Amino acid sequence: PVTVASGLEHPWGLAFLPDGRMLVTERAGRLRIVAANGQLGAPIDGVPLVDARGQGGLLDVAVDPNFADNQRVYLSYSEPGVDADGDRANSTAVARAQLDGSRLVKLQVVFRQLPKVDSKAHFGSRLVFARDGRLFITLGDRYKRRDDAQTLDTHHGKVVRIHLDGTVPADNPFVGRRGALPEIWSYGHRNLQGAALHPATG
């Protein structure tokens, strides 16, 4: 094996920019640019706040298919918050922002996994762009709520599919079904941390 870059703390996600540089997430909450020669850049400003406990933190990164025109990148991460009782909790969230040199600007959260729970495990969190430009997001069952993966009223243990602005495609399989969250594409998963499009069928 060849070491491309060193000095990263729990690197989790990687995405190539059009010029060959790499965006790399560190689970503790840092996003860095790694040059083609392996030179490690300083942390990028403007990254959202993450709950970096256990398996949580700053997770995947993906470059918008139209990055050359819009400079957008997408990040998945464990977002801190509170549950229905007001107690400390978290869930997987996805935000997009424009990469402006060494900072992110115009950050916008486009998806939040519901409900938030107090767990340090099973965030899922891979981001995959479909050929039609829509975004697949893998979501873990949060470990404490494993049975939720079999129901359609939470995002736990699901793959969701959204437009890039966070809205729901009208042809998602559960749109219009009573009691089902319309973002859901598939369900019954544990903690998907790998995802890719089939190279022939998409």
Note the beta-strand portion.
Answer: 35-45%
Share of helical residues: under 10%
Specify the overall morphology: globular
What is the structural class?
A: mainly beta
Distance N to C terminus: 30 Å
Helix count, per DSSP?
1
Number of strands: 11
Give the overall average pLDDT: 97
Series of secondary-structure elements, N-terminal to C-terminal: EEEEHEEEEEEE
Sequence of strands across the biggest β-sheet:
4-5-6-7
Keywords for this entry:
globular, 2% helix, 202 residues, mainly beta, 1 helix
Task: Explain how this protein is built.
- The protein has 202 residues and is mainly beta.
- It contains one helix and eleven strands.
- The mean pLDDT is 97.
Layout: helices, strands, pairs:
Layout: E1 11-16, E2 22-26, E3 30-34, E4 58-63, H1 67-70, E5 72-82, E6 88-100, E7 103-112, E8 127-129, E9 135-138, E10 158-162, E11 184-187
Question: Summed up, what is this model?
Answer:
This protein is mainly β and 202 residues long. It contains 1 helix and 11 strands, in the order ββββαβββββββ. The longest helix has 4 residues, at 67-70.
